[in-house]
Amino acid sequence: MAFLVCYLAMPSIIRIAIRRGIVDAPSERKAHKQVTPSFGGVGIFLSCVLISLLFIPSENMDQIRYVFAALTIIFLVGARDDLDPLTPGAKLFGQLLGVALIIFCAEIKLTSLHGLFGIHEIPEMMSIILTTVVFIFLINSFNLIDGIDALCGSISILVLSVIGTWFFFIGEAAFAILAITTAGATLAFLKYNISPSKIFMGDTGSLVLGTMCTVLMIQFLEVEASAVIPSFVSASTIAIGLFILPAFDTTRVFVQRLLNGKSPFQPDKNHIHHLLLELGLSHMQSTSLLLVVNTGFLVLAIRLQEINPTVFLFISLGIAVCLTQCLHLSIYLKGRDVLRTEP
Fold first, then answer.
1. Cα–Cα distance for residue pair 192/175, rounded to 1 Å
2. In whole angstroms, what separates CA 254 from the centre of its chain?
3. Cα–Cα 20 to 30 A to 236, which of 91, 216, 300, 312?
4. Are 160 and 212 in contact (CB under 8 A)?
5. Which residues constitute the domain of residue 102?
6. How many domains does the chain have?
7. 248-269 pLDDT, tens per residue?
């Protein structure tokens, strides 16, 4: 139902965005080459909320209503940024308001590191600080990978489908519905976002998807840890496998910017998806490859979940660094070949 609502609404959203001038123009730091409407996140957000409200059991609404309130704040921050770009500080303030609702009202927060770095239970204040940092980091990670067609949507569908299916099988109806309706709406959006893209999700969509995926990931960790019969040996290892691509790419780019003496919030074209485009891949080839890589990390996490999660984290980071260096080497060799073949 969420798929159908978003699928049917998207043509109207595209027309309104074009008529109102809500478009993303090409620039030196952007990967697209033509003016494209940028308000697709409206369809994802409205479809998810509408269908979820119809089907989430009433006994769960005391907690879920605060999640919807937080999503609405994040949605409005993204919409404002799509209409008239906000400063990084203003965006951060809006995100913190939404995160505060989730932590203090919905009471969704990390109470443990679940064995990562050998840490389990953590104090209340540390729990609040850590949850806030994780939320802000992952929300903006999803925002930053939204640089080529279908990438952010595809990674989000992977995360939402895996966690939503798990919630369904353990009987957590409310969070299963949240995950699957968001995945369905995002899948409908992708029909219009596959190259040649008719519309982008904009910050309206990427911030909402980042928030939803993080909410579900934290709830997954907390519920799995307290389950009488856990489904996984290490839920934190599964979470690493799901989120490794956006988390690694964001960390890598931020560190690289700082080492170059730039602000970590200064946009550039050094993300992994930009490197793949530089290598000669198309938008959809780059998206498909990165989705396969992220799925590979998830499969690896499932196979290796019996090892210490800290060890798995370093194994994943090592593989990610090696793959990135291979990508840089391929670009360098391609440049050498171009120079040799030029008359």
1. 27
2. 17
3. 91
4. yes
5. 2-341
6. 1
7. 999 999 999 888 888 777 778 8
The mean per-residue pLDDT over the stretch 284-300 comes to 96
Structure tokens at 50: 């509408």
Tens-place pLDDT, residues 190-242? 999 998 889 999 999 999 999 999 999 999 999 986 665 567 778 899 999 99
- For residues 275 and 147, is the Cβ–Cβ distance under 8 A? no
CB contact at 8 A, 245 and 155:
yes
Strand partners, 200: 38
What band does 136 get if pLDDT is binned at 50, 70 and 90?
A: very high
Is a pLDDT exceeding 90 seen at residue 304? yes
Q: Which amino acid is at 297?
A: F
**Contact 276/151 with Cβ under 8 angstroms?**
no
Find, among 8, 97, 115, the residue nearest to 51 by Cα: 8
- Mean pLDDT for 146-168 is 95
Residue 188 in contact with residue 6, Cβ under 8 Å?
Answer: yes
Helix ranges (H only) for 111-172 are 124-144, 151-170
Burial degree of 335 (CB within 10 A; 0-12, 13-18, 19+): exposed
Token pair of 137 as six digits: 């980091």
Between residues 95 and 339, the one the model is more confident about: 95
Q: What is the predicted pLDDT for the residue at 264?
A: 79
- Contact call for residues 170 and 156 (beta carbons, < 8 A): no
- Quick one: CA torsion of 74, 77, 83, 84, rounded to 10 degrees? -160
Question: How many helices, marked H, and strands, marked E, lie in the chain?
Answer: 12, 2
Please calculate the CA angle 162-167-168 and round it to the nearest 5 degrees: 95
The structure's pTM equals 0.93
| Residue carrying the six token digits 């931020």 | 254
- At 13, list the tokens: 């959203």
